[in-house]
Inverse folding.
C-alpha cells in the first residue's frame, strides 16, 4: 500500500505516453494511399475511355468491351472515393458531382457506340462497293461517279464543314442521276446510294456526340474531390505532428524527471556509501575486539577508538567506566593531549545531560549551548563538538564512550546512529570481560557439548578426507592392474585391495550422509586453495593417460560456500571429463572473477548482475550433442552403461544451493566445457574465523520421546550438555500421562521417532492437544512424505533431521523458546 501512489503515477504516465504514441502514429496513411489509388484508377480509366472512343471513331477499334470496362472502372473509383469520404466524415458533394459527370459520359458513350457502329458499317460498305471489280466491269460510266461519291464521303469523314456536306450532297445527286434503274448493277447502285445518304446524315451527328463526350466537365469535380482529400490529409498530418511534438515534450519532461531522480538516488547512494564505510569500520573493529583475548582488550580498545575517531572526524576519543577506581581508555591525535581531569568528568556531564539507553548526546557546536556547568566544562577541555554514547549495563549508566572535536561540525551529517553502533561494539567487548568471570561455571558443560560436536564434525571431516584417500587407492589399483598378469597372486591381491576400497567408499558415503548437517555454515573459500587440494587427489585417482592442468588463480578470488561440497563439484566434473576421454587426453581447470552487468541466462539457472567466480573444467573428450545437453543434469540420466547418472545432478544441486548457475558448451568430437558460476566474495584469512558457540539453554525442561533406550540415553546426554533438563520416555503412553498430569512442568516437547515419521506425527499431535501452549519439535529421518499442512495441523513448530546433532538441536531449541517468549535470562 505504501507504493500504491507511485504505481498509480507510473501507470497513468504509461497510459498517457501510449495514448500520445497512438495519436501520433500515422494511422490515416493507408486510407489516404487507397484514396490516391482511387484517383489514379479514375484518371487512368478516363484516359483509356477517351483513347478507345477516338480509336473507335477512327475505325481502329471494333470491340467496345474496353469502353465498358473503362466506364466500370471509373464508377468503381467514384464508389471508393464516396466510401472514403463518408468514412472520414467529409463533404461528399464534390464526389457526387464527379459521379454525375461519369454518368453523363456513360450516356454519351452509349449513343456514340450505336451511331459509330452504323457509321463504320456504312463506311465499310461504301469502300467495298467502290473498289469492287465486278461493279466496275458492268458499267464503265458508273465508275467515275462511284469514285467521286466515295471520295466525297471520305472527305466528309475528315472535314465536317458545310462545303464538305454540300459537295457530298452534289455527288449523291449526280450518282442518283447516273445510277441504272435496271441491270446487274442496279441493286448495288441503290445500296451505294442508300449508304451515302445515311452517312450524310450520320457523320455530323456522331461527331457532335463525340464532341459532347469529350467536353463533359469531369476535370473540375475531380480537382475539387482531390483538393477535399488533400486538405483532410493536411489536417490529419498537422494533428499527428502536434501529438508527436507533445509526445516529445512529455518524453523530455520524463527524462528530466529521471535525471532528477537519478541525482537524488546518487545523493542517497553517496550517503549510504558513507554510512556503509562507517559500518564497515565498526564491523571490522568489532571482529578485532571479539577475537582478542581479555588481556589484549586495553590495547585493542585504543586502536579501535583511533579507527572510530578518524572515521567520524574526531580529534580525541575515550571510554570511561564507573568502577572503583574509574577506568579510562583514551586515544588522541598528534599534539592533541587531554587536559587534567578530562575525560574523567565526561561521565559526570553525561549523567547531568541524562544519557541513558538508548539515548546519546550530540553537541555539534559547544558555543551554541546555554551558559552553564556543561558548557564551561566542555570549553575548559577545549572541546568545540562532542558526542557521547552510553555503554549500558542493567540498572544504570556505568560507562560511556565519547568523542571530542576541536572545531564545530557544520554542513555534514554527524553519524549519530553509527556512533551508537560503535558504542554497542565496544560495549560487547567490555561485556566479555564480565562474562569471563562466569565462564568457569559453564566450562564442564560447554566442553562436554563441544566434545560431542567435535566428534560429529571429526567424523564428517575424516570421512570426507578418507574418501579422497580411497579414491587414490582405487586409482593406483586400476593403474597397476594392466601391468600384472591376470590370475597371478599379485593381480589377485590388487583385485582384493580394489574391492576393499570400493567397500570402504560405500561406507564413507554412508558416514558422509549421516554426518551431513542441514544447517551447515558457509564461509569464504579461497578458490586457489580449493583447486590445489582437489588437484592433489585428482592426479592420484585419474587414469594415467589423462593429464590434469590447473591454471594459476589469484589469491583474492574467493566464493562463499561449504568447502566439501565445492570440492565435490570439482571432483564430479573432472571425473566425468576423464570418463568422456576414454583413457587419454587432458583436463584443464581454471577460475577467474567476472562482473555480470545484465541478467544472464545460463544452461542451468540464470545470473543476476553482480560479481561472480567462473570455475571452468574443459576436456578433450568425445563431447555430446544438443539432445544430451538438454538432459545432462537429470538424475539417473547417463550415456555410459556403468554410470549412475548422479554426478552432474549432484553438481547442479550443490551449485543451486550456492545461488550459482552452470553453463555447458560441447560439440560431438570437440570436447566439452563446463562453467560453474558462483557469487564472489572477499577473500578472508582462515585464521581470522573462529567457530561460533552453540546457543545453550538455561535449565529449561525438555520432554523427549524415543522408542529405543540406547538412543534415548544418547539424546538425553546431548540435551544435558546443551544446558537443558531432559525428561525421557520410551513409550508414548507414559509421555502422554506425564504431560497430562503436569503440563506446566515441561518447557518444550521433542518427539524423536526416526524412520517412523507417521507414528511420530500422531504422537506430536496428541501431545500438542494435551499441552497446546508448548512448542513441539519432531525429529524424522525424512520429511518428504509429510506435508506442511499436516505438520501445522499437528502443532509442530520445527522439524529436525534424525539422528539428532548437537548443532541443529541447539539452534532449533533456541529458536522455539525465543519464538514462544520462554527464554530465560
Amino acid at each position: 500500500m505504501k507504493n500504491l501512489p507511485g504505481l498509480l503515477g507510473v501507470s497513468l504516465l504509461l497510459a498517457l505516453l501510449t495514448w500520445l504514441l497512438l495519436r501520433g502514429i500515422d494511422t490515416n496513411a493507408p486510407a489516404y494511399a487507397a484514396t490516391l489509388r482511387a484517383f489514379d484508377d479514375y484518371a487512368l480509366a478516363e484516359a483509356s475511355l477517351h483513347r478507345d472512343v477516338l480509336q473507335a471513331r477512327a475505325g481502329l477499334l471494333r470491340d467496345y468491351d474496353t469502353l465498358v470496362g473503362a466506364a466500370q472502372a471509373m464508377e468503381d473509383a467514384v464508389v471508393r472515393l464516396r466510401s472514403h469520404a463518408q468514412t472520414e466524415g467529409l463533404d461528399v458533394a464534390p464526389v457526387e458531382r464527379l459521379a454525375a459527370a461519369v454518368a453523363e459520359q456513360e450516356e454519351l458513350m452509349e449513343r456514340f457506340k450505336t451511331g459509330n457502329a452504323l457509321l463504320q458499317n456504312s463506311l465499310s460498305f461504301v469502300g467495298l462497293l467502290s473498289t469492287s471489280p465486278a461493279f466496275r466491269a458492268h458499267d464503265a460510266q458508273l465508275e467515275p461517279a462511284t469514285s467521286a461519291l466515295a471520295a466525297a464521303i471520305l472527305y466528309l469523314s475528315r472535314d465536317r464543314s458545310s462545303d464538305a456536306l454540300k459537295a457530298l450532297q452534289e455527288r449523291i445527286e449526280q450518282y442518283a442521276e447516273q445510277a441504272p434503274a435496271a441491270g446487274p448493277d442496279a441493286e448495288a447502285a441503290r445500296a451505294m446510294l442508300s449508304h451515302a445518304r445515311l452517312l450524310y446524315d450520320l457523320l455530323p451527328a456522331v461527331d457532335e456526340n463525340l464532341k459532347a463526350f469529350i467536353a463533359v466537365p469531369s476535370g473540375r469535380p475531380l480537382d475539387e474531390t482531390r483538393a477535399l482529400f488533400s486538405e483532410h490529409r493536411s489536417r490529419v498530418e498537422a494533428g499527428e505532428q502536434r501529438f508527436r511534438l507533445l509526445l516529445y515534450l512529455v518524453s523530455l519532461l520524463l527524462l528530466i524527471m529521471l535525471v532528477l531522480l537519478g541525482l537524488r538516488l546518487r545523493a542517497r547512494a553517496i550517503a549510504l556509501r558513507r554510512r556503509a564505510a562507517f559500518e564497515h569500520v565498526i564491523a571490522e573493529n568489532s571482529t578485532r575486539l571479539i577475537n582478542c583475548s581479555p588481556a589484549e582488550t586495553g590495547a585493542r580498545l585504543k586502536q579501535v577508538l583511533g579507527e572510530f575517531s578518524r572515521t567520524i572526524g574526531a580529534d580525541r576519543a575515550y571510554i570511561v567506566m564507573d568502577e572503583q577506581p574509574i577506568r579510562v581508555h583514551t586515544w588522541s591525535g598528534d599534539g592533541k593531549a587531554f587536559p587534567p581531569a578530562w575525560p574523567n568528568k565526561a561521565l559526570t556531564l553525561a549523567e547531568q545531560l541524562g544519557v541513558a539507553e538508548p539515548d546519546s548526546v550530540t553537541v555539534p557546536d559547544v558555543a551554541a549551548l546555554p551558559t552553564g556547568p556543561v558548557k564551561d566544562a566542555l570549553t575548559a577541555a577545549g572541546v568545540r563538538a562532542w558526542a557521547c554514547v552510553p555503554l549500558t549495563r542493567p540498572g544504570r549508566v556505568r560507562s560511556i564512550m565519547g568523542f571530542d572535536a576541536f572545531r564545530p561540525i557544520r554542513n555534514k551529517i554527524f553519524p549519530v546512529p553509527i556512533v551508537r553502533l560503535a558504542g554497542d561494539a565496544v560495549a560487547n567487548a567490555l561485556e566479555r570481560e564480565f562474562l569471563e568471570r562466569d565462564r568457569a561455571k559453564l566450562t564442564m558443560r560447554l566442553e562436554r557439548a563441544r566434545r560431542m560436536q567435535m566428534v560429529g564434525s571429526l567424523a564428517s571431516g575424516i570421512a570426507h578426507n578418507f574418501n579422497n584417500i580411497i579414491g587414490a587407492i582405487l586409482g593406483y589399483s586400476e593403474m597397476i592392474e594392466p601391468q600384472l598378469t591376470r590370475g597371478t597372486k599379485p593381480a589377485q591381491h590388487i583385485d582384493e585391495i580394489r574391492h576393499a576400497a570400493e567397500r570402504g567408499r560405500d561406507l564413507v558415503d554412508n558416514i558422509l550422509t549421516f554426518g551431513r548437517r542441514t544447517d551447515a555454515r558457509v564461509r569464504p573459500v579461497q578458490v586457489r586453495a580449493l583447486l590445489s587440494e582437489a588437484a592433489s587427489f585428482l592426479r592420484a585417482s585419474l587414469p594415467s593417460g589423462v593429464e590434469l592442468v590447473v591454471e594459476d588463480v589469484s589469491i583474492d578470488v574467493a566464493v562463499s560456500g561449504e568447502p566439501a561440497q565445492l570440492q565435490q563439484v570439482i571432483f564430479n566434473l573432472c571425473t566425468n571429463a576423464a570418463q568422456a576421454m576414454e583413457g587419454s587426453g587432458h583436463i584443464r581447470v581454471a577460475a577467474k572473477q567476472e562482473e555480470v552487468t545484465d541478467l544472464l541466462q545460463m544452461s542451468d539457472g540464470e545470473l543476476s548482475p553482480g560479481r561472480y567466480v567462473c570455475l571452468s573444467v574443459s576436456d578433450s573428450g568425445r563431447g555430446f550433442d544438443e539432445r544430451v545437453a538438454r538432459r545432462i543434469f537429470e538424475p539417473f540420466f547417463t550415456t555410459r552403461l556403468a554410470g549412475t547418472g548422479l554426478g552432474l545432478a549432484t553438481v547442479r544441486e550443490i551449485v543451486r544451493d550456492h545461488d550459482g548457475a552452470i553453463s555447458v558448451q560441447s560439440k560431438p568430437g570437440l570436447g566439452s566445457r563446463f562453467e560453474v558460476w558462483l557469487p564472489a566474495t572477499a577473500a578472508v584469512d582462515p585464521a581470522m574465523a573462529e567457530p561460533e558457540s552453540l546457543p545453550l539453554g538455561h535449565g529449561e525442561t525438555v520432554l523427549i520421546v524415543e522408542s529405543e533406550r540406547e538412543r534415548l540415553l544418547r539424546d538425553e546426554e546431548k540435551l544435558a550438555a546443551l544446558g537443558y533438563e531432559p525428561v525421557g520416555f520410551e513409550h508414548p503412553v507414559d509421555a502422554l500421562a506425564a504431560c497430562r498430569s503436569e503440563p506446566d512442568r515441561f518447557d518444550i516437547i521433542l518427539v524423536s521417532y526416526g524412520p517412523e515419521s507417521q507414528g511420530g506425527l500422531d504422537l506430536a499431535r496428541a501431545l500438542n492437544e494435551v499441552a497446546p501452549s508448548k512448542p513441539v519439535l519432531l525429529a524424522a529421518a525424512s520429511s518428504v512424505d509429510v506435508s506442511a499442512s499436516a505438520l501445522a495441523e499437528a502443532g509442530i513448530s520445527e522439524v529436525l533431521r534424525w539422528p539428532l546433532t548437537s548443532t541443529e538441536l541447539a539452534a532449533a531449541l533456541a529458536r522455539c523458546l525465543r519464538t514462544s517468549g520462554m527464554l530465560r535470562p
